[in-house]
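FAQ: What does a ligand-bound record look like?

Like this one, built around orotidine-5'-monophosphate:
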Amino acid sequence: MTGVSVQGFGRRHLDAVGERGRLCAGIDPHAELLEEWGLPVSVDGLTRFADICVEALGPVAAVVKPQVAFFEVFGSAGFAVLERVIRGCQEAGALVLADAKRGDIGSTMAAYATAWLEDTSPLCSDAVTVSPYLGFGSLDPAVSAARASDRGVFVLARTSNPEGAALQTATVDSLCSEPASVSDRPLRSEPASVTKGVAQSIVDAAAAENADGTATVGLVVGATRAHGLDLSALNGPILSPGLGAQGATADDLPSVFAGADLAWVLPASSRGVLGAGPDVVALRAACEKQRDEIEAAFG
Ligand SMILES: O=C(O)c1cc(=O)[nH]c(=O)n1[C@@H]1O[C@H](COP(=O)(O)O)[C@@H](O)[C@H]1O
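The answer part, i.e. the structure of the complex:
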């Protein structure tokens, strides 16, 4: 593995995947899945779905990723079920990555950080997904809260959906900072000194945060297509959704992540694994099979 010795969240992450293998099992209680599992689309159905996932996945997956949106659908009762999933999976030994994709101005971001990353919160998880599109610096409160408690944030860089490409591959002047006022604007534009893709600028900002060896800042880079990013200096985890329902396979991963440190790559699947439920044994077997395919592909 490249880089400095790993501590903090990075150590917790590497220990978890070292023990259980590289798979993040998504817990996405889609209405269609509830129906497929023979459950009502209601809080009762959600609770049963969640309990099956905790029992099947919590003891074997290195990381579980509840998708907050599917709990939010049911309002406060859904959030109560989410709290139960978070605690249950942690007690079973999995790291919990709350897929909340939060992002806002810094002062509001601080409240999101309290909600998802501080011990006092009933939703406190081991990590949370965040969006950098209000500016990478707006994520500072979450990065600080995570760093202070050996937790992590996973920042969207190059997402698995086709709609992300136009924004994420756009070229930016990486040294550009907004003038404080109109009068501060230069009379003529200066030549851009460094240009890079938006996603690469996020990778580079994350790598700078990880220079302390804590791997506090992970990235989200989809497994569904070549991304063209240089991830070699990141020294942090790379969540890679897209396996299964979105079409990527374990065999795609080595070429998608050529040049990255594969020890950090954490492929994720939700529907591709959850389709094996509601039987606990079958669901756990599907999770282990997907993990084994990933480990075999990485060699
Ligand atoms: O942050 C994520 O997890 C995420 C990022 C991304 O680029 N693409 C993506 O699909 N996801 C999430 O990963 C899960 C994918 O679900 P499946 O397609 O069923 O495996 C969903 O919860 C998505 O919200």
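Follow-up question: can I read anything off the structure? Yes, for example: Residues 280-298 form the longest helix (19 residues).
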